[in-house]
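ok trying this again, last paste got cut off
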Amino acid sequence: MVEIFLPHTLTQEFMSLIPAQRAVVNRLVHDGTIRSYTLALNRSRLWVVMTAKDQEEVNKILDEFPIMPYSESELHELMFHDMASHELPRLSLN
């Protein structure tokens, strides 16, 4: 899990990076690299659970995030991560 500390002041320049950030995150969620992506209510930090072989791979993934030049991060290795799945409801043929 990566904890990303966002800047105290969210400038217009930082805010302009959010659409590109969301595009990268959406792609990584779709391909299974990111398992969850959570923003604190006060917008001070993000928690990103991702699947990676090692810290080098995590750093490569984080380098894709447009917001990283404005943020700091801390890696927390997890033993496991459980979460409810977002499955579609089962269809009934009746």
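PB: full thing came through this time. The chain has three helices and four strands.
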